[in-house]
Amino acid sequence: MSETPPDISVSIPCPLCEYDMRGLPEPRCPECGARFTWKELLEDRPHPYLFEHHPERNVVAFLRTALGGLRPLKFWKTLRPTHRIVARRLTWYWAIVCVLMASSVLGIYGLHCVQLADQIARARASYPAVFGDASYRQLLDEIAPQPGSMAFFRRAWLSPRDTTTSILGLDPRIENACICCVILLLWPWLTLASLATLRITLRRANVRRAQLSRVVIYCGDAFLWMPLAALVILAVWVWNVFDVRVATTGRRWAALYPNELEEWFVGSFAALLVLVFAIRFGVALRRYLQLRHAVSTAILLQIIVLLTYAAIVSQFG
Ligand SMILES: [Zn+2]
Prior knowledge:
Elements: H1 38-42, H2 58-68, H3 72-78, H4 87-126, H5 134-143, H6 150-157, H7 172-198, H8 209-220, H9 227-242, H10 244-249, H11 253-256, H12 259-287, H13 294-316
């Protein structure tokens, strides 16, 4: 690794703040304090597997990037600010993360539909059969819409009429899943906004926005594991439905599967992912942005985000 200053006729912008480093005696940016090697500043080498740099194998690159983030120390050692930012592919990466997150809401909705269909089928069976009476059937369809009909899917989505706690007017279970999804997807960007307010204090006033976006995206992709929670809920449900003991004792899934348990599980899983995000963010601040007080900064920023959400909740509260 050559540490000889290169030809001074070439402009060498600092990858973090774009300060022109040509002619400097050492590859350390006087503006933002970040340290590099002349070799990495001058060459344009792609990252070994990053989604941004490998359009020729999208699926593999996506999976490897997502899995790579699970080992933050290694990830933020291999990814350097000197790796060229491909904004379009970085945006695509985040869009796919958002779609995967939204799929967890759809998963919960699908499960909710199946369970509601079961409830409705039993409710309809318990009504006296007055066949032939059209107005009675219409009333029955209104109270307990046929599974599979549009009215049924709307019923599964919308809040029951007697619920007054709903914010979005959706079924409480779906609404919780939606709110959880939105909170998590906004989390990295609120962290970024909080970091922006501290940039001058941290001597990072001039760090390029694209670099900061890259940091929050490769930390925020921790939330793409949220659909795992929906899968676990589905697995528990399937297990209970097919459990022989349940079948023989006549107890249904509803008795074994209270919604409170689901809320507790989804909440805990989301909290775990926030913790994973915070750890990754702390590592990124230290290794990528080369901040000196990375851990305390990461903790402080997460407290700011938590307080922001607490303020929003108290507004609705
Ligand atoms: Zn710099």
